[in-house]
Amino acid sequence: MALYVKKFGGSSVATLEKMRHIVSRVLNDKKEEDQIIIVVSAMGNTTDDLLHLASKVENNPFNREMDMLISTGEQVSISLMAMIFNSMGTPAISLTGAQAGIIAEGVFGKGNIVDIKPERVFKALNEGKVVIVAGFQGITPQGDIITLGRGGSDTTAVALAGAMEADICEIYTDVKGVYSADPRIVPNAIKMKEITNAEMLELARLGAGVMHPQSVAMGKRYHVPIHVRSTFTHESGTIIKDSYSKQMESNLICGVAQDDNVARIAVLGLENMPGTAGMLFSELASNEVPVDMIVQSARKLDDKTIDIIFTVASTDLHQAKFVLEQMKQQGKINKVMYDDNCAKVSIVGPEMLGTPGVAARIFGSLGKDNINIDIVSTSKNSISCLIPRTYINKAICAIHDEFFK
C-alpha cells in the first residue's frame, strides 16, 4: 500500500472533460490498496476572473474579503471532481483547506502554512475514499480563510504529503518536468531526471515558474520527494529530492531561470551615514514589500550622499511607490526613480562560484548579443543579471547556448 498526493493545476482542470481525463488516469494507475489525495487549483482562469470582478469594487489587492472571494474557485473544482469520482463508482469526498486541517498565518493573499492537522483526511482515506483537497488556501487560528499566494496549490500538496508522510508528491503540470531553461523559449532545453531541493529552490526563487519556492521549501523541510510531470503523458518527469542518486552527477550549471516580474527603484541623494539603508528597507519591510537585488554607491569617494538602487516584484511596485512617496512627504528621502521595464536572468549551479570564469562567460555571452547589464548579484549557488525586459528571451538563449552546447 502506498499513499500518494497528486496535484493538478488550473489548466489541467479547466473543463469537465479534462477533469474526467484526470479521474480516469488516477483510477487506471491506482492499485487496490493505494490511498490517494488529490489537490486541485481553480478551473482555468477562474481566479483571474474573480480578481477582475473584485477590481470593479475596490483596489486593495490583499484583504480578508478578497481571500474569501477567490478561495471559492477551488471549491468549485473539488466538488465537481468528487462528483465525477462518485459517478464512476469510486467513493470520494471534497475538503476545503480548512476542512483538511491546513492552518496558515500572515498577510491575506500571501499566507504561510504553519501547521497541518489532517485527522479528517486520514479518516476519509481509511474509509476507502479518494480525498480531493482545495489548494491555495488555509484557515487562520482566528478562523478566517487565507490564500497562499502564487503557487499556493503546489505548497498545499507538498505540505500535505510531508505532514502525512506520503510516499511521493506528484505535481502534474503542462510541461514534462524541470528543464535547463523554459522549453517554450529555448527549444533545445534539457529535461532533468533529478534535481536537488537546494538547486530547485534557487531556480524557483529566481523565476523558474514550474515550481514555487515555498512548495520546494516544504519538500526540503519534510524530506518528501516531488515528482514534476505532465498531465498529458505517462512519461516520467523530474524528481526533486534531497540529493542525487549515486548514478547521477550534478553539473556545473543545472539551469537558467528568468523573471520578468521585476521593477527597479533608485532612491537618490540619501545621506551617507550609518542607518540610512536600514531606515529605508525597514519601512518597506513593515509594509510587506520584499526587496531583491540591492546596490548602494557613492558618486565619488568623499561624497556625503549615496544612491541606493534595488528591485521589487512588478506586482509590488504600487505598494512600494505608496511607501516611498509617503517617505518623501515626511522628508526622509528626496528623489525616487521607478523603472518597470526590467527582467532578471540567472544561472544556478552547486559548484560554479568556486569555478573561475563562470561570470566572464555569462557577461561575454550577453555582450555578444549587445545586451546591457544594469545590476549583478550573486549567491552561493547563483549569478543574476538585471537587464531590459525586451531582451529577456534573447538573453536566456544566449546564456543557455554558452553552458549547454
Automatic annotation (TrEMBL):
Keywords from the named record: Amino-acid biosynthesis, ATP-binding, Diaminopimelate biosynthesis, Kinase, Lysine biosynthesis, Nucleotide-binding, Transferase
Matching InterPro entries: AceGlu_kinase-like_sf (IPR036393), ACT-like_dom_sf (IPR045865), ACT_Aspartokinase (IPR054352), ACT_dom (IPR002912), AKii-LysC-BS (IPR041740), Asp/Glu/Uridylate_kinase (IPR001048), Asp_kin_monofn (IPR005260), Asp_kinase (IPR001341)
Keyword Kinase attached: yes
Residues covered by the ACT domain: 265-350
Catalytic activities: L-aspartate + ATP = 4-phospho-L-aspartate + ADP
Family note: Belongs to the aspartokinase family.
NCBIfam families per UniProt: asp_kin_monofn, asp_kinases, PRK06635.1-2, PRK06635.1-4
Protein name: Aspartokinase
